[in-house]
Amino acid sequence: MSKTNSLALEPRLAAIMTQEYPRFSDAEYARRHKRLDEVMQKAGVDHLLVVTDHRVGNAPQWVTSWPGTVEAYVVFKPGVKMTMFMEWYNHFPLGKKIAHDVDVRWGEHQGIQKTIEELKRRGAKRVGVMGPLVVSKWRMLEEHFEMVGLDAEYIRLRTIKSGEEIDWLRIGAALSDAGLAALVNETRVGMTEREVGNLIERAWVGHGGTTMIHYVGRTSMANPHIFVPPQHHSPRKVEKGDVIFCELSAFWWDYAGQVLRTMTVDAEPTPLYRDLYQTAEAAFDAVTKVVRHGTTMEEIVAATGLIEEAGFSACDDLMHGFGGGYFQPIIGPKSRPAGPLPRMTLEENMTVVVQPNVITTDQDESKRAGVQVGELIRVTKTGFERLHTADRKLFRIG
């Protein structure tokens, strides 16, 4: 069995992974460019500058398929071939190969100046910007053009997924599930958290996946010292009687899954951890039961009430948009709001993570206990669709 087939993907998804450098269909890029045109018309801009700057920002990848490894400045206007200035020169050959229907040029370490020259040559007057741009570069552009920030519009474009994007998220979910399987099947007493992180990452890298996150927490069930998976691994070792909880996301290019699970090490869960886990799973079920096109934010928060009824709270956000970024709706439970409720409803083909990180409410945070469950789902007209296939259960290692 090939590595790709070992992920148990449908043939059409496995075929995507066998491409040298995967890309979406021409129709999908045409759809995206049409949406950009609509944004430009509404904003009254004649050109759009799509940016990756200092390795931050994924808008050029969405528009051209090039990930923008260092800097990428894409000049976009409907009906005109795009121009992209990129760094570095040793990245230039691959940029030309991957970027879709783009005149790719080396930026010569003066990419923003060259972008300004190109915009002036085109007669640009009012320029919209999508993506991060440091203040000094914004001001350089502002000397020549009227500038309009369009990041909010870009986020709206990424919030509702196309069918092709959802397929790529299915691959990201499968890669993330492979990391979870490695964690469950290969973790041993005596391993450090760093070694556990390594085996998780090895599970998806060989398939072409790249790491977004692998947050892994481990603590004694009898004497817990953490209640949410930390973002960096420590040299602490796995011990019998531990609980391990994780949040794993592997990218398939710009499309990651997210799977969150809890497991015990060579021991049955203590009564406290059994209660925490059962509450977390019940919260996941309660929230997903109300998920559908048109669900209000108030309905989602109301569904989380059983967490407080059980005497617990949560640390992590309970729901957030996902897939190309960390989007609204970002929602916490009643006892730990994630800020003002966004003024929106769920829409069909939004992809969101539901992730009840149920914790105790000890006054002393160093004594709190917690678990993590959940995963990425797709909102449908009448409910939701799982994008992951990993078992939903309290795992046991050893």
Report on this model:
- With 398 residues, the chain is of the alpha+beta class.
- It folds into two domains: 26-159, Creatine Amidinohydrolase, Chain A, domain 1, CATH 3.40.350; 163-397, Creatine Amidinohydrolase (Alpha-Beta Complex), CATH 3.90.230.
- The chain contains twelve helices and 18 strands.
- It has helices spanning 11-17, 26-43, 59-64, 92-98, 111-122, 135-142, 151-159, 163-186, 193-205, 271-290, 297-303, 305-309; strands at residues 47-52, 72-77, 80-86, 102-106, 126-130, 146-149, 210-220, 242-252, 255-256, 259-265, 313-314, 319-322, 326-331, 351-354, 358-359, 374-379, 384-386, 395-397.
- The strands form three sheets. Strands 7, 8, 9, 10, 12, 13, 14, 16, 17 and 18 form a ten-stranded mixed β-sheet that branches. It has a six-stranded mixed β-sheet with strand order 4-3-2-1-5-6, with helices on both faces.
- The chain is globular, with a radius of gyration of 23 Å.
- The model is unreliable at 1-5 (pLDDT under 50).
CATH first level of the largest domain: Alpha Beta
Radius of gyration: 23 Å
Judged by helices, strands and strand pairing, the structural class is alpha+beta
CATH topology of the largest domain: Creatine Amidinohydrolase
What's the total count of β strands? 18
Look at the structure and give the mean pLDDT: 96
Q: Unreliable stretches, pLDDT < 50, 5 or more residues?
A: 1-5
Report the order of strands and helices. Answer: HHEHEEHEHEHEHHHEEEEHHHEEEEEEEE
Shape: globular
**Share in helix:** 25-40%
Distance between the termini: 27 Å
The CATH architecture of the largest domain: Alpha-Beta Complex
What is the beta-strand fraction?
Answer: 15-25%
CATH superfamily assignment of the largest domain? Creatinase/methionine aminopeptidase superfamily
- Number of discrete domains: 2
Number of helices: 12
> What characterizes the major β-sheet?
10 strands, mixed
